[in-house]
Design a protein that fits this description.
- This protein is mainly alpha-helical.
- It has 2 domains: about 5-190, no CATH class; about 190-370, no CATH class.
- It is built from 12 helices and 3 strands, in the order αααααααβββααααα.
- The chain has helices at about 35-55, 60-80, 90-105, 110-125, 135-145, 155-165, 165-215, 255-265, 270-290, 305-325, 340-350, 355-370; strands spanning about 225-230, 230, 245.
- Strands 1-2-3 form a 3-stranded antiparallel sheet, with helices on one face.
- Helix 1 packs parallel to helix 3 (about 90-105) and helix 7 (about 165-215) packs parallel to helix 10.
- About 35% of the residues are buried.
Length: about 375
């Protein structure tokens, strides 16, 4: 087919990267999946733009839009091939590909637009609310074309006329849906950052408490003093003292003084560290059990992993705080554990009990993931 483009709308010399006249080089291999996807999608859009350029009925002003597509694809390729950390390269690649795809709809032939309407409609229904006027306008266009109503028969020529008239609506809805999807991903990344920051802060608190307990073991001893008649013992996580009189001593020492002296002799520097390790192990078991309720996500932000990691320092802290409350007789009837094994067992229970707190965060994480409506969410019922 010979091109009949007038000279006044001749497109830029080439949309292909410099040094690749045949357009056969996609690029890569890249260091991550999203970079590979960017390079592949950029080559696909570039090929479609070249195909539109070679068509016989170019859209008015397509030279300007083709140049804009070339610029957007160059920016997307640059973001995918240059070294960069954080979310900026990904956002640059994603938004430029979205812009190039929307511009392609502005210059594509009407019959190409007609074939793209189901995809654009599905994209809009996933990311735009049902009351959005742009989505409702596209749904009316799809209904007029007979796409959403299989009983309606529209002549082919009339369908092409409708599509040509509604070209701006189709391209605008495509861009609006892509922008809404981008905002959903920004919210997802923000939530992930909050969870990661909370995990780091809790981990630092765990380290600080563990170091303080190792340097000053008698400062916050997780020891108990059960009494048996006139005798009492001090039970710590790793050992227990010899029995001592529970009544005041001959020298006038009170029971509390006897307990404090026995605790100072019995407590060890790594008692608190052992409690936190047991709480962390229990939290790891809870995180493994919670995996069964986690749906995989097609996004790269790793929200399920961040939620699982949050449980680890939380479990260590709940084990420490739970035993501290028991030692302070906050729980009636559980203020005097008899053996070291009981202390360790309760540390295990309190470490697993962090699930009561992190479960609320898990629910919020699932809600945020569900808001990013894609292949990993429930399908949207068409109107």
């Amino acid at each position: 087919m010979t091109s009949t483009l007038p000279a006044r709308i001749q497109p830029p010399p080439s949309l292909r990267p410099a040094g690749d006249p045949a357009g056969a080089r996609v690029g890569g291999p890249a260091r991550s999946g999203w970079r590979e996807a960017t390079l592949t999608r950029a080559m696909e859009i570039e090929s479609l733009a070249d195909w539109v350029r070679a068509g016989e009925e170019p859209h008015p002003g397509c030279d300007v839009l083709l140049e804009a597509i070339r610029v957007h694809l160059g920016a997307a390729r640059e973001a995918a091939t240059t070294r960069g950390r954080g979310g900026a390269p990904l956002e640059r690649a994603r938004t430029n590909l979205d812009a190039a795809e929307s511009l392609l709809l502005d210059i594509a032939p009407p019959w190409y637009l007609l074939g793209a309407i189901p995809s654009v409609l599905g994209h809009a229904q996933r990311h735009l609310v049902a009351t959005d006027p742009r989505r409702r306008q596209l749904e009316r266009v799809a209904q007029a074309l007979g796409i959403t109503n299989s009983q309606q028969r529209v002549p082919p020529d009339e369908r092409l006329t409708i599509v040509a008239r509604e070209r701006g609506t189709i391209a605008g809805v495509m861009r609006a849906a892509s922008s809404a999807a981008h905002r959903e991903l920004v919210r997802l990344r923000s939530f992930r950052n909050v969870v990661v920051a909370a995990t780091v802060v809790l981990a630092l608190l765990v380290v600080a408490v563990a170091v303080g307990g190792f340097v000053r073991p008698a400062m916050v001893p997780l020891c108990f003093a059960p009494e048996d008649g006139a005798q009492a013992i001090v039970v710590c996580p790793t050992r227990q003292s010899a029995p001592f009189p529970a009544a005041p001593g001959a020298a006038g020492a009170s029971v509390e003084q006897n307990i404090d002296q026995a605790t100072a002799r019995t407590v060890r520097p790594y008692d608190l560290l052992l409690i936190m390790v047991i709480g962390l192990i229990a939290a790891a078991v809870a995180a493994a059990a919670a995996v069964r309720g986690i749906r995989g996500s097609s996004e790269r932000y790793g929200v399920p992993v961040a939620l699982a990691l949050l449980k680890l320092p939380t479990g260590a802290l709940t084990a420490f705080l739970g035993l501290l409350l028991m030692r302070g007789q906050f729980v009636p009837g559980l203020s005097a554990l008899d053996t070291s094994a009981q202390i360790l067992a309760w540390a295990l229970v309190f470490g697993y009990a962090q699930q009561l707190f992190t479960r609320l965060v898990d629910q919020q994480g699932h809600a945020v993931l569900d808001s990013v409506r894609g292949a990993n969410s429930a399908p949207v019922t068409p109107p």
